[in-house]
């Protein structure tokens, strides 16, 4: 459980960056999640896992990723993405149907 708690900020940051900037890489996740030095391998593992799950797709530039089909389908509406909190507390507006957009 502790290991997953340490990884969660990187997952959230990767998703946020992919949805708001359209791209994500190790450095941007580390900066967004405010991680300490030495977490690069953890973030690389997370981005690779997200790619395996089709949440991200690799870009032409090694180590850079774009939003994948799974994350795109699960994403909130564009107007909800515009309202993402800068404090890392993200709550999408939902009509309760589980479908956004």
Notable characteristics:
disordered C terminus; mainly alpha; about 100 residues; 5 helices
How many helices in DSSP terms?
5
Overall outline: globular
Elements, N to C (H/E): HEHHEEHH
Q: Which oligomeric state applies?
A: single chain
Distance between the termini: 33 Å
Q: Structural class of the helices, strands and pairings?
A: mainly alpha
| Share of helical residues | 40-55%
From the alpha-carbon coordinates, what is the Rg to the nearest angstrom? 13 Å
- Tell me the number of strands: 3
Low-confidence stretches: 88-95, 97-101
Mean pLDDT: 80
Summarize the biggest pleated sheet: 3 strands, antiparallel
Strand content: 5-15%
Strand order of the largest sheet: 1-3-2
What does this structure look like?
By secondary structure, this protein is mostly helical. It is 50% helix and 10% strand. The protein has five helices and three strands, in the order αβααββαα. A three-stranded antiparallel beta sheet has the order 1-3-2. Strand 2 and strand 3 (64-67) form a beta hairpin. The protein is globular and about 35 Å long. Residues 88-95 and 97-101 have low confidence and may be disordered.
Briefly summarize what is shown.
This protein has 101 residues and is mainly α. It has 5 helices and 3 strands.
Topology:
Layout: H1 2-21, E1 23-25, H2 26-33, H3 40-52, E2 56-58, E3 64-67, H4 69-74, H5 78-81
Antiparallel strand pairs: 1-3, 2-3
Helix pairs in contact: 1-2, 1-3, 2-3
């Amino acid at each position: 459980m502790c290991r997953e708690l340490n990884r969660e900020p990187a997952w959230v940051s990767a998703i946020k960056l992919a949805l708001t900037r359209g791209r994500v890489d190790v450095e941007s996740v580390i900066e967004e999640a405010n991680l300490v030095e030495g977490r690069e391998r953890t973030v690389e593992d997370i981005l690779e896992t997200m790619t395996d799950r089709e949440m991200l797709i690799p870009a032409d530039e090694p180590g850079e990723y774009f939003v994948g089909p799974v994350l795109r389908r699960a994403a909130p509406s564009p107007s909800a993405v515009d309202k993402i909190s800068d404090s890392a507390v993200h709550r999408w507006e939902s009509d309760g149907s589980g479908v956004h957009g």
